[in-house]
């Protein structure tokens, strides 16, 4: 059974991402093609990258890095839930991604973004970052607008159209994660 991590990419107090991640998990839990697990960055307090060796060497010194590496290595693919801050993803998500290299390789990921323009620019940045880490970004992106998919900019009210887009994105993440399995096994 494939394992897909739903990474909650914000640690900001009052974050909208928590309800978005739970919405993703609620829909994903109805599926039988993979198991889905929430990975909340609040549970992995990573200081600004503090490893002396580049992540590509895999020579992790710190216990927080080793725990993070073990968690990410346990998954076959990901859904990254990201806010858009200043036309990009959150600093905490970027930092968490930068800690590792091989643990990300040959896995698929989908993006659920949110912000004033649906987090589209954050999603585009994540696609570029993912490519450098040998992560395969699926085409479909759930882009939640603070103006139309939230009430009062704070309460998620995603409709059927967004749920259908999420289902398509999850289909792609599962299919691509399965297709990339031989590359993961060879590595």
In short:
The chain has about 190 residues and is α/β, with parallel strands linked by helices.
Describe this structure in words.
Helix content is 37%, strand content 24%. With 187 residues, the protein is α/β, with parallel strands linked by helices. It has a five-stranded parallel beta sheet with strand order 2-1-3-4-5, with helices on both faces. Strands 6-7 form a two-stranded antiparallel ribbon. β1, α1 (17-28) and β2 form a beta-alpha-beta unit. This is NAD(P)H-dependent oxidoreductase. InterPro entries: Flavoprotein-like_sf, FMN_Rdtase-like_dom, NAD(P)H-dep_reductase. Residues 3-146 form the NADPH-dependent FMN reductase-like domain. Pfam families: FMN_red.
Write the topology of this structure:
Layout: E1 2-8, H1 17-28, E2 34-40, H2 63-73, E3 77-83, H3 91-98, E4 107-115, H4 120-132, E5 135-145, E6 150-151, E7 155-156, H5 160-179, H6 181-186
Parallel strand pairs: 1-2, 1-3, 3-4, 4-5
Antiparallel strand pairs: 6-7
Pfam family, one: FMN_red
InterPro entries: Flavoprotein-like_sf, FMN_Rdtase-like_dom, NAD(P)H-dep_reductase
Domain NADPH-dependent FMN reductase-like: 3-146
Strand order of the largest sheet: 2-1-3-4-5
Distance between the termini: 19 Å
Secondary-structure element series: EHEHEHEHEEEHH
Q: How big a fraction of the residues is strand?
A: 15-25%
Main β-sheet, in a few words?
5 strands, parallel
| Relative helix content | 25-40%
**Low-pLDDT sequence parts:** none
Q: What is the overall pLDDT average?
A: 97
